[in-house]
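User: Sorry, what's this?
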Amino acid sequence: MNSDIPGISWAIPEILSKSGIRYLSMSTDPIRSKRPEVPMPFYWSSPDGSKVLVWNTESKTNCYGEGYELGFGESYREVLISLPKYLKRVEEEGYTYDAICLRMALDNVAPHIEVSKVVNEWNEKQVSPKIIISTNSEFFRYIEAKYKERIPSFQLGWPDWWADGNASASCEVGLSRNIHRE
């Protein structure tokens, strides 16, 4: 799992795959970088043919806080309003799988019981969709078992970085370069 990072090396699928890691959950920072414009989920292949199954949070929500943006950290009532709209939009945009990953992460926010309470109330009151709190691995195993043959594969670079750091940290960059040179 990788959050709030603009991009990562094209070698990552090879490194992960050869280390026995089959899945990568990404949440690219959409404000300071360009994310690959590929469908979710997708297989990311490296130049040597190694691949991992990737989920990258979508760009129209608060990147790695999708679940919070939809109200899961607040109340059942908030989710009742926002989740159906969200699901309708992603379906209209072409999402065809029967499960979706919504990340519950934000800067400096600890996990809290409200998420479980909201999910329990939703599942008691709503017939569909059922909401399951799971790990990334559980989600990936389900998607891969059911849709492996349909999931597209892409061989692409994802090499972005914090573009504002070079100018805003010029002193630190200079110190680092001197250290490396010495």
